[in-house]
Design brief:
Elements: H1 3-8, H2 13-46, H3 54-58, H4 61-87, H5 107-115, H6 123-138, H7 141-162, H8 164-190, H9 192-196, H10 201-255
Helix pairs in contact: 2-4, 4-8, 4-10, 5-6, 6-7, 6-10, 7-10, 8-10
Protein name: MotA/TolQ/ExbB proton channel family protein
Subcellular location: Cell membrane; Membrane
Pfam family, one: MotA_ExbB
Length: 256
């Protein structure tokens, strides 16, 4: 995995594309096998009175698209959350701790170990490596401290930019719902003559498309915004923990 993807915690393009195709396929099978047949059965049995049925609300293509990309967005956020959980121990480790005999750890030896670590491209480890490299090059603790501040700011910015796809999906879902609204209203107006003649079932069905697509898309976007808020909170905590552990375990050692 590329270093950029490791720090911003995005899945690889291959994994991301495979999961997206799998979600689209599974949702389509579910729609064709359960939702649309159930909706048709309810409409045939109750007619216009079936507009409030859950199957009827979900049956249209706009709702299918919203659910598909909504689930994909959930995957992206869950992936990032698991990555944060997996790297959690790094934010409390003291790589420069004294050994059992009270001997100080050799800074250059620690740097070599960190550079060969499996977590070398993670946010916390990258900050340690950058700071130690700056200290070895300059033998100045203040320069090392400045390197920590720069690395922390870069980490926060990369985590924020890594959420751009999630924010785009959350924006796109209501837009897809509005597309369904426009399509439904346009189709309903085409049924105006039949409605004037006394057959309102066609117009009611098309208006259902208009309102249901907006309803579903807004509900999904509200849920996703909550999940994004929780993810952002975990990422902020990760940045804070990285800064604290560097100041506590790294700078305190270099000052000795």
């Amino acid at each position: 995995m590329a270093k950029q993807d490791t720090i911003n915690m995005n899945p690889s393009l291959v994994l991301s594309g495979g999961i997206f195709l799998a979600i689209v396929t599974i949702v389509h099978i579910f729609y064709e096998g359960i939702i649309r047949p159930s909706a048709e059965a309810v409409i045939a049995a109750y007619g216009a009175a079936a507009t409030g049925n859950i199957w009827v609300i979900l049956k249209d293509f706009e709702q299918q698209a919203c659910i598909s990309i909504g689930l994909y967005c959930c995957f992206l956020m869950l992936y990032k959350s698991f990555r944060i959980k997996h790297e959690e121990p790094l934010y409390t480790m003291n790589f420069l701790a004294e050994d059992e005999d009270g001997e100080k750890a050799d800074v250059e030896e620690v740097l070599k170990k960190l550079e060969n670590s499996a977590f070398k491209d993670s946010g916390a480890m990258s900050t340690w490596i950058t700071c130690i490299q700056r200290y070895i090059n300059t033998q100045n603790v203040q320069h090392a401290s400045d390197a920590i501040s720069t690395s922390i700011e870069s980490l926060a910015a990369q985590l924020e930019s890594g959420n751009s796809m999630i924010r785009y999906v959350i924006w796109a879902i209501p837009s897809i719902g509005f597309v369904g609204t426009v399509r439904g209203i346009g189709a309903a107006l085409a049924q105006a003559e039949e409605a004037v003649a006394g057959n309102i079932s066609g117009m009611v069905d098309k208006l259902g498309v208009a309102f249901n697509s907006t309803l579903v898309s807004l509900v999904i976007s509200i849920i996703l915004m909550l999940l994004l808020h929780l993810l952002n909170n975990r990422q902020d905590q990760m940045v804070i923990k990285t800064q604290k552990t560097c100041e506590k375990h790294l700078l305190s050692h270099l000052h000795k």
